[in-house]
Amino acid sequence: MVDIEQLNPRNEAALRAWWEVGRAATAHRPGNPWPAWEQTRVSLPADNPEGGLTVLAAIDGREMVGAGLLVRPLKDNLHTASVDAYVRPDRTREGTGRRLVQEMEVVAAGDGRTTLHGEVYVAPGESGTPPEAFAAALGYEVASREAFRELALADYLARRDGLLDDVARASAYRVVTFDTVCPDEHLASFGRLLGLLLDEIPLGDLDLSASEWSPERIRAAEQRQAGIGRHVLTALAIAPDGSVAGSSDVRVNDTDTTHGQVGITLVDPSHRGHRLGLALKVATHDLALATYPGLVAVDTSNAEVNTHMNAVNDALGYRTLETLLELQKRL
Questions:
Q1: Structural contact between residues 240 and 265, judged by C-beta atoms closer than 8 angstroms
Q2: CATH superfamily of 2-113
Q3: Which residue of 60, 190, 271, 277 sits 20 to 30 Å from the alpha carbon of 168, by its own alpha carbon?
């Protein structure tokens, strides 16, 4: 009999077993799909001002055979929650994944959440896969499709000089870079830009609304990143009037300095057409390599319909590894 239990993420032995289930469940995927244990050990128990976490485990006797994670936003989009479920490969098709998801739905509904989000990854061009069928059977529809891509930094360096003429088109803007902590003089304007994000990126049918980023919220988020050993290597484009016109970042964890992830790339609509997206990405990738000479690869995801950003990623040398299906269910 498999029991579904909530775990205390500060119980390191239980968290390690939970992590092992997730690692086994994602081992078939290309790239770097699962965080290092040391990162999970630090980040999951840490206080998070942005999200409330519920960690679930499926237990059969003394074995953990499934793992779940429910994340509830605490600052905005308070009607939503995200659901992730993993089942050990030798224990699939026994109903464990379904029970994990259903338990997370109960917890989310009890917290007043009415829209649930999830993700599945499939090979590019594939459809009707078992993960999609599982999600559909539980009432989750595909709300958006994204290309999940990886860049080998050796490929980036081989292309970099050929990008500089395009980057020069952004010369009217000053580029400021920093590690995690935004300079005080740009903080308010940076927050204004972040508040545009969900209005400006393609969301498909995802039920999400724009948020507000006060200086206090940014500083709290920065403090959390620093506390869990995550470096958000950021570039800001500063317009001639001193406002923040665009931003991009690459995130690298102290526990794995060979891989990074692109976080947010956003250009204010009133400043588009100057190749700022490319200029900012070149700046962050250069900063990441200067900070971590052993960096091997960086990954990112963008909506398939976001043709401009996908073209920028093509120019940098990114290649598609998987298709990310953003799922949604209204309770």
A1: no
A2: Gcn5-related N-acetyltransferase (GNAT) (3.40.630.30)
A3: 190
Per domain, the residue ranges of the chain are: 2-113, 150-302+309-321
pLDDT digits (tens, 9 = 90+) for 273-291: 999 999 999 999 999 999 9
Measure the CA–CA gap between 277 and 229, rounded to whole angstroms.
27
193: its two tokens: 């830009």
Give the C-alpha separation, 282 to 248, whole Å. Answer: 10
CA atoms of 304 and 123, how far apart (whole Å) = 14
Please, which residues have CB within 8 angstroms of residue 289's CB and are 6 or more apart in sequence?
153, 157, 295
CA-angle at 167, arms to 164 and 168, nearest 5°: 90
Asked if the domains 2-113 and 150-302+309-321 are classified in one and the same CATH topology, the answer is yes
Torsion of CA 229, 301, 286, 157, to 10 degrees: 130
Of the candidates 249, 244, 241, the residue with the CA atom closest to the CA atom of residue 196: 244
CA distances (Å), origin 208, targets 19, 64, 77, 80, 283: 29, 34, 6, 8, 30
DSSP summary character for residue 119: E
Class of domain 150-302+309-321: alpha beta
Contact 22, 86 (CB under 8 A): yes
Would you state the structure tokens that stand for residue 100, as one six-digit string?
Answer: 């994990």
28, exposed or middle or buried, with CB in 10 Å at 0-12, 13-18, 19+?
exposed
pLDDT digits (tens, 9 = 90+) for 153-200: 999 999 999 999 999 999 999 999 999 999 999 999 999 999 998 888
Provide the whole-model pTM. 0.95
218, 182 contact by CB (below 8 A): yes
